[in-house]
C-alpha cells in the first residue's frame, strides 16, 4: 500500500511498503464504518473538523498500519492523536492560505511525478495504485497542494529569518577545537555526532492514559527499527520532528549542540545503535547513531560534489509549467546526444554560473537549499535530473563528479555556519508550530464516533 504524504513535512514522495497488495477494505479494520449523519468534532478558527473527515483519516491510517505489518492501536488511543494532528495541520494550512501564497498546478504535477518515480511507477500506474488502495486521486492531489503550501510558508516564516553571526561561528569553532584537544571516552562533548530521531509527540495536557499509549506506540516503532525496518521510512511515517523530512537525521555536529538527554542516551552506542524511547517535554524520542567520531573539523574528511545546472527564473512571461516543459525538453535533447548541457546552460541559464556552462564548482554538504541538495545527492555522476522547482526557480541539474577531501579553514566556517543555521531553524520551527497551534481558537464539539 502507498502512504499518503502528511502535513508537516515537505512533499518527499511515497515509498513502496514491500508487497504492493490491495488495501485492506475498511470493514476489515475491526470496527464498524457504517455511514452516519456527519457532525462537527472540533472547530479550528471557525473551520470545522467533521466526524467523517476524522473517520476517513482513521481508516486510512489503520489500513496503512495493517499493510505495514504494524499492530493497530486501540481507537481510544489513536483517535485523540489524530484529532490533535488534524488541529495542528489545519491551523498551519489556514495561516498559509491567509498569507496569499499559492501553489500552481504545475508544482503539484511535479510532486505527483516525483512520487511516481520514487515508487518506480508511471503517473497512470500511480493513479491505478491509489484507486486500488481506495484513495481518491483528487484528494491525493489536494493534500499534496496543501503540504507544498505549508512548506512554502515555513520557508518564508522560519528558514528565511534565521541568521548566523560571525561571532557565533567563532565561538562554535573555539568550542570544537577545545573539545578535539580534550577528547576522551568520558568527555562526550568532544564527540561529533550525527543522530537521527523519531519523535512521537505528546500533546500538552495529555492524560496519563494518553501518555502511556504514546509511549507504547514509540516502543512499537523502536522494535520495528530493531527488527530491521528502514529508519528513514519510519521517521517519515511516525515522526513529528522537523528532521523527518531528512530521514530523521539532524546532521553532524558536536555533542554539546545536541540536547544532553540525547547525548546521554547514545553515549555508549556505536554507529547504527538505537536508543529510546527517551522522554522529553515534546514527547518520546527514538534515536539512532548515524555517525560518531572525535570532533575537530580540521581533520574531518567530507564528500564534495561538483555539479552544474540550468536555472530558469519565473516571471509573468515564464510560468512554472512552461519552465518545467522547457527544461524537460532540454533533458531529452541532452540524453539523445542532440545537445550539450554546458552549451544549453550558456545560452539559457539565468544564473551567474551560465558563463561557466552552469558549473557550480565543488560544493560541500549543506551549501544548497535542501530540495536542491536532496536531488543532487540522489544522482550518479553524469546523471541528469528531472526539472526541479526551488524558491529560486526551476533547475535542470547534472552531477559531474564526487570526491573525498579535507576541510580548509574557510570550508570549516561554511560548514559551521550551515550547522548553526540548521540548529536554529529546527528550534525556530518547533517554536513556530507551537505558536501557530497556541494561537488557534479550538473548540471541541461532539465526541467522535
Structural class: alpha+beta
- The spatial strand order of the largest sheet comes to 4-3-6-5
Number of β-strand runs:
11
**Ends apart, CA distance between termini:** 26 Å
**CATH architecture term of the largest domain:** Orthogonal Bundle
Helical proportion, percent range: 40-55%
Hey, roughly how much beta strand do the residues contain? 15-25%
Q: Remind me, CATH topology of the largest domain?
A: Triger factor/SurA peptide-binding fold
Helix and strand run: EEHHHHHHEHHEHEEEHHEHEEHE
Average per-residue pLDDT, rounded, comes to 79
Number of helices: 13
Looking at CATH, the homologous superfamily of the largest domain is Porin chaperone SurA, peptide-binding domain
Specify the CATH class of the largest domain: Mainly Alpha
Cα Rg: 23 Å
**Global morphology:** globular
What does the largest sheet look like? 4 strands, antiparallel
Q: What ranges have pLDDT less than 50 throughout 5 or more consecutive residues?
A: 1-35, 179-189
Overall number of domains: 3
Give the helix/strand layout.
Elements: E1 40-44, E2 47-50, H1 51-67, H2 75-98, H3 105-118, H4 123-132, H5 137-157, H6 166-181, E3 191-201, H7 208-226, H8 231-238, E4 249-254, H9 260-266, E5 274-280, E6 283-294, E7 301-312, H10 320-335, H11 341-348, E8 359-363, H12 370-378, E9 388-390, E10 393-406, H13 409-439, E11 442-444
Helix pairs in contact: 2-5, 3-5, 6-13
Amino acid at each position: 500500500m502507498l502512504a499518503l504524504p502528511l502535513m508537516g513535512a515537505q512533499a518527499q514522495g511515497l515509498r513502496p511498503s514491500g508487497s504492493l497488495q490491495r488495501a485492506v477494505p475498511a470493514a476489515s479494520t475491526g470496527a464498524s464504518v457504517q455511514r452516519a449523519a456527519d457532525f462537527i468534532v472540533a472547530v479550528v478558527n471557525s473551520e470545522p473538523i467533521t466526524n467523517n473527515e476524522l473517520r476517513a483519516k482513521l481508516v486510512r491510517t489503520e489500513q496503512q498500519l495493517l499493510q505495514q505489518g504494524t499492530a493497530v492501536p486501540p481507537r481510544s488511543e489513536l483517535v485523540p492523536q489524530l484529532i490533535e494532528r488534524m488541529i495542528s495541520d489545519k491551523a498551519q494550512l489556514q495561516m498559509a492560505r491567509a498569507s496569499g501564497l499559492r501553489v500552481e498546478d504545475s508544482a503539484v504535477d511535479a510532486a505527483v511525478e516525483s512520487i511516481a518515480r520514487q515508487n518506480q511507477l508511471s503517473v497512470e500506474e500511480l493513479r491505478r495504485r491509489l484507486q486500488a488502495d481506495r484513495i481518491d486521486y483528487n484528494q491525493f492531489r489536494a493534500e499534496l497542494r496543501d503540504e507544498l503550501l505549508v512548506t512554502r510558508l515555513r520557508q518564508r516564516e522560519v528558514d528565511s529569518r534565521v541568521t548566523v553571526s560571525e561571532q557565533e561561528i567563532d565561538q562554535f569553532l573555539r568550542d570544537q577545537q577545545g573539545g578535539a584537544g580534550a577528547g576522551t571516552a568520558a568527555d562526550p562533548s568532544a564527540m561529533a555526532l550525527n543522530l537521527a530521531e523519531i519523535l512521537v509527540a505528546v500533546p500538552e495536557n495529555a492524560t496519563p492514559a494518553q501518555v502511556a499509549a504514546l509511549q507504547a506506540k514509540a516502543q512499537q516503532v523502536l522494535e520495528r527499527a530493531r527488527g530491521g525496518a528502514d529508519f528513514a521510512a519510519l521517521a517519515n511515517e511516525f515522526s513529528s520532528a522537523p528532521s523527518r523530512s531528512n530521514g530523521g537525521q539532524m546532521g553532524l555536529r558536536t555533542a554539546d549542540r545536541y540536547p544532553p538527554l540525547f547525548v546521554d542516551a547514545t553515549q555508549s552506542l556505536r554507529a547504527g545503535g538505537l536508543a529510546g524511547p527517551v522522554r522529553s517535554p515534546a514527547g518520546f524520542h527514538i534515536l539512532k547513531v548515524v555517525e560518531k567520531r572525535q570532533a575537530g573539523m580540521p581533520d574531518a574528511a567530507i564528500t564534495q560534489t561538483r555539479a552544474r545546472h540550468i536555472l530558469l527564473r519565473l516571471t509573468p512571461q515564464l510560468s512554472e509549467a512552461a519552465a518545467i516543459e522547457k527544461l524537460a525538453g532540454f533533458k531529452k535533447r541532452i540524453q539523445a546526444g542532440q545537445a550539450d548541457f554546458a552549451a544549453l546552460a550558456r545560452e539559457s541559464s539565468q544564473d551567474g554560473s551560465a558563463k561557466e556552462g552552469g558549473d557550480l564548482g565543488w560544493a560541500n554538504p549543506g551549501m544548497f537549499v535542501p530540495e536542491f541538495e536532496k536531488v543532487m545527492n540522489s544522482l550518479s555522476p553524469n546523471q541528469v535530473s528531472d526539472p526541479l522547482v526551488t524558491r529560486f526557480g526551476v533547475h535542470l541539474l547534472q552531477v559531474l563528479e564526487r570526491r573525498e577531501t579535507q576541510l580548509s579553514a574557510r570550508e570549516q566556517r561554511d560548514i559551521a555556519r550551515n550547522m548553526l543555521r540548521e540548529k536554529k531553524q529546527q528550534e525556530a520551527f518547533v517554536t513556530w508550530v507551537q505558536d501557530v497551534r497556541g494561537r488557534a481558537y479550538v473548540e471541541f464539539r461532539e465526541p467522535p464516533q
